[in-house]
Amino acid sequence: MSIEVGVNMEFIRCQDKPFAAGVERAAQLGFRWVEPMVHNGRELLSEAGYFHSFSMDDDPLEMKDILDRHGVKASGLSAHCPLMRPEISVPYLQKAVRFAAAVGAPVVNTDEGIRPDWVSLDEAFPIMKYTLTTVLRTAERYGVSIGIEPHQSISRTTAGLLRIATLVDSPRLRVNYDTGNVYLAGEDPYEGLKAISHLLVHVHAKDISIRMSEAEKGKVTGTPVGCACGDGVIDWRKVVAILRQAGFSGVLSVECGTPEQAARSLAHLNTILSEPRTASA
Fold first, then answer.
1. What's the CATH number for 4-273?
2. Helices and strands per DSSP (H, E), number in the chain
């Protein structure tokens, strides 16, 4: 597989639709890859059909049937949890790994989560190492990667992201790079992408509007969704050039807020991907 474009299921949240409706809409827009969100137990809005998240207490093959019905595949699972709370994150991520393997998703995307008040920075890394070591034993058995996303206080910097993503010596510990989160945190998304490219397994294609940039850059560590790719501050030709130079083969999973933004993102990114490979990184 070369570089392809997918969509995170957050694009359908604004319409209060369930998972199956979101997958159908993504396929109608022309996407062949989606990134489902999963959760534990029962969740009121999802149970009522107003939210796209999928319970891991349900049969993973039910999710696969929905994907197959609409001719799409899962580029990864969105399974964010607090790595510094192993009592939560170990069983959750182990379940997510087994779920991902059942539906054919190659990576489980997560981040370190919010550091609890009672955990010092010095204590945080040994705890995360324990969590990741335990989870990666399962990930290695199932052939699924764990993608660490830059999204919180430690991973907001490239140095912090690299430290987390190398806590365990495992080929299954990788990076899910989020261009928009990195930009908002005040880092250079292009230099950061180059620095982590050897660990890259999945990309969140998140653009940031001028308005959001002016209001939040340097004040936050990320945002759930961005604007349509091509409408904001991210130079997607530069991103694609860096990915190609690094030999990346995988999915750019668009993270935006509406189906209309998703459609424009797909068109913009496909145009760039179809251009001759002459852009300089």
1. 3.20.20.150
2. 11, 11
